[in-house]
């Protein structure tokens, strides 16, 4: 993106609100505040971690995660119930989200692409995950909400250990 296009994007308050929402989401996930994180989503929101780094056909391809609202809430329940391996000794995480670009802009949504570096620590093991992330932020009566999050891990086609946290 040229400097002029970047300046235009950063002068758009909707783009800035979308970026702030992504940063807020990252802070909530690091704090394991999954209920508040879930409230950031639209009713139709999708949370996807595809294995194929180039696919956009999430329903027709294999994914690590392809959650609608019901599945996302079930995942949160498993992470917070204390009755699953992912809930026991949950990992501590710190993530950085940067390199924002505006992929699409409509009357009611902004689609951002960004880079995410996540460091997780669990049971004396530190893991670093890098991903290209797409967020579609939809304008709603309640304010901007997550409508789509696609996490394209750089190592998605390799073995990825169970993490015990949301990406």
H/E series, N to C? HHHEEHEEEE
The overall strand count is: 6
**Average of the residue pLDDT scores:** 90
Shape: globular
Could you give the order of strands across the largest sheet? 2-1-6-5-4-3
Going by CATH, the architecture would be Roll
Low-confidence stretches: none
Q: Assign the structural class, choosing from mainly alpha, mainly beta, alpha/beta, alpha+beta, or little secondary structure.
A: alpha+beta
Domain count, please report it: 1
Strand content: 35-45%
Compute the gyration radius: what is it? 16 Å
The helix content is 25-40%
The CATH class is identified as: Alpha Beta
Q: How many DSSP helices?
A: 4
Oligomeric grouping of the chains: single chain
Distance between the termini: 26 Å
The CATH topology turns out to be Nuclear Transport Factor 2, Chain: A
Largest sheet: 6 strands, mixed
Topology:
Elements: H1 3-11, H2 13-30, H3 34-38, E1 41-50, E2 63-67, H4 69-81, E3 92-105, E4 109-122, E5 125-140, E6 143-153
Parallel strand pairs: 1-6
Antiparallel strand pairs: 1-2, 3-4, 4-5, 5-6
